Amino acid sequence: MDNIEGASSEDTAKELSFGGLRPADEIMIQTGNSLYSFSVTDPTERRGILSGGALEECGVTASLIGSFVEGEADSCTFLSGLKTGARALFYIEFGQGLKRLLTSAITDLIYVRL
Predict the structure, then answer these.
(1) H/E/C letters for each residue in the chain?
(2) Exposed/middle/buried for 47, CB within 10 Å: 0-12, 13-18, 19+?
(3) Could you give the CA distance from residue 60 to residue 70 in angstroms, rounded to a whole number?
(4) Staple 40 to which of 48, 65, 68, 104, CB 3.0 to 4.6 Å?
(5) What is the residue-level pLDDT of the chain in tens, covering all 114 positions?
(6) In this predicted structure, what is the pLDDT of residue 109?
(7) Which of 38, 18, 41 lies closest to 28 in space, CA to CA?
(8) Closest Cα to residue 64, out of 81, 78, 84, 76?
(9) Residues in CB range of 74: below 8 A, 6 or more apart
């Protein structure tokens, strides 16, 4: 995966690793069904504010876990980054617990370093 440390202020990417995330960075995740926006607040823990999709414009605190690529014969490969064709996995804070949010397949990624 490409490391975002070398990314310019706005890059359209096919793959995105988490190594160079900084506070206030923004990741736009276009899927087959929705557009999500993830604003990084804690790059070490990959925590931030997630909005879009089923969440609509209501931002929630979330952790970006990574993504899954579905293969043949119902196999899945976990990636510690994001990749087009994969599905992003988030855990969002919900009341006193966490809920899992798995997107549909990613069609485009835009990384904005502020």
Answers:
(1) CCCHHHCCCEEEECEEECCCCCCCCEEEEEECCCEEEEEEEECCCCEEEEEEHHHCCCCEEEEEEEEEEECHHHCEEEECEEECCCEEEEEEEECCEEEEEEEEEEEEEEEECC
(2) middle
(3) 27
(4) 48
(5) 334 444 444 555 588 888 889 999 999 999 999 999 999 999 999 999 999 998 888 899 999 999 988 766 676 787 788 989 999 999 998 888 899 999 999 999 999 987
(6) 94
(7) 38
(8) 81
(9) none
Spans of all domains in the chain: 4-112
Tokens 């879009």 sit on residue: 52
Tokens representing residue 51 in the block: 């909005």
Polymer length of the chain: 114
**In this structure, what token pair is assigned to residue 92?**
């969002």
